[in-house]
């Protein structure tokens, strides 16, 4: 039996999550690996912008905080750590880990850096077929921020076989972080599609951390979980024959049951017959799940088909600007004051000739489910809400226009309706993404292994 | 024949890819699988997102898992790329689906 634990499901996850996972892996005494998934689709673009500011940045900002409490335990118990926390700068992330290791008295910790996913300079995107794109988006080469291929498990397997204690990658497919230790441990062939399908399902179920063990699941009174402030992150038990059981860290909150596993199995999945990863195409149409103990769910019936010939490349471009402003109203006549404020804001943007596309939310009445035109809150009839927050959001090519639009919300503090307060406003740059397909041979990868002692 | 919101009999999670949202839908009681299969049609789910310009809804049935997967195209007014919505990923969409009502025989 081999154990795969997950200690982070996105950049921004609970930083203390890996601690009970590692404690459980050690207590169980089986061969094991831990992976951290911290790289969202556009996280890499934000990281690339950081790197432009400072060449030693551009990796996961919480990296040291995540690893400091667990690095020594993982090293001493032979639990390799894999992560895409290298983001836009895996070599700098490796240097950060080396420094941490030396400080913890682990100079022999071996760190593998996997590079090659960054194709911004090596591949002319204009020559590639477009995979996913909103055709209205302009893909201006001059505004390219990042272009990264989703690489598969192979270089991570190589790193583990070379004896890496920590594998630092940038853009990998999320499931590859779980497939790699399984392939390295069991020696599965990279064309054993049935086994790789199990690895891909394991990765898919674990890649969002607590989402399979109670996170974004709990719904008080309907789907209660123990101790949502302390949800245990997941651990998979994978057998040599491809058996798969999902469980979680011991002595934690959360739960693993048929409901949590179903929700995560279908998360961000479109055609259930075709979940495409760089290593295998997973088919869950024959999948069955079974509760085999407390917080233990077995996953059966996974099928795999050959890996695609092409890899996905996600390119990120500098986009337009987003301006946002919010104010609150509360008490008697709230709805009338909020609606009138919305009208006034739109009128102000028009009067000032600001070239922006606006949207208004009445938070508390209708916002996240509403359309840009506010169809739901315009149609609202019923009880007077006790308070509302009015949000203006605008998008435009010109930063100053977006800033001025957002400041119109601020101006309501004096010019708005009676009892207006709590203004906030900000302007942020937008990142546009576009996906392409690239033949996998155009994305060579490199694995560099050094001990912490050797790195400076 | 009581009419209830889906939230009373089922659970759901939403995820996105670009301007497309997917929502799983699972009844708590296997006896309600057929009720959902009959009443929660692609057309009804598409209509839930019509005000946001959704163009197409596809339902995948997974009887082995006791689950459905709804994939709605152009439901996010641009998705994280272009949306002005606070929830550009459409993660809250699952609870719009759960507000749809069904009649329990």
UniProtKB/TrEMBL annotation, chain A:
Domain of life of the organism encoding this protein: Bacteria
InterPro entries attached to this UniProt entry: AtuA_N (IPR010839)
Residues covered by the Acyclic terpene utilisation N-terminal domain: 4-448
Listed name of the protein: DUF1446 domain-containing protein
Protein species of origin: Plastoroseomonas hellenica
From TrEMBL, chain B:
Superkingdom of the organism of origin: Bacteria
InterPro entries for the chain: AtuA-like_ferredoxin_dom
Occurrences of domain AtuA-like ferredoxin-fold (ranges): 4-102
Record-given protein name: AtuA-like ferredoxin-fold domain-containing protein
